[in-house]
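User: hey, got a sec? need Phosphatase NudJ folded
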Amino acid sequence: MQWKPHATVAAIVEDNGKFLLVEEETDRGNRFNQPAGHLEDNESLIEAVIRETLEETAYAFKPEALLGIYHWKHEHNDTTYLRFAYIGSVSDYQPELALDEGIIRAVWMTIDEIRSNANLMRSAQVITCIEDYLSGQKFPLSVVTHL
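Assistant: Yep! Here you go:
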């Protein structure tokens, strides 16, 4: 079997000092994560992050910048991930939408709440992405080319 990393996307959304996260069921208990998921075949990264955010939070996501690309090897399942994290805003909340399987709820948390609950984050990437966002890191959407 050929090794290959898993390509994932994540939405970094901040509104009035609070960050949009999802509480989800994992094999290690309930954890918090950014709205995130896997890139699907015949889908651009932008399309993937918009879709995943809607499926996990019932909010429409508008990507505005690329926060960064994160390479991470999961210590519990030995899987390598390449995470494309996008900064953006949400609107058009649709509470009637059913959330993805395993998603308990969307929740808004301050950075202090996130830091004090670091052990409940799905991975270290959650806080790393938020800290990078708070430091002002961002790149234009045009740095990723879709052919």
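Quick note: The beta strands are 6-15, 18-26, 29-33, 36-38, 60-73, 80-91, 103-110. Let me know if you need anything else on Phosphatase NudJ.
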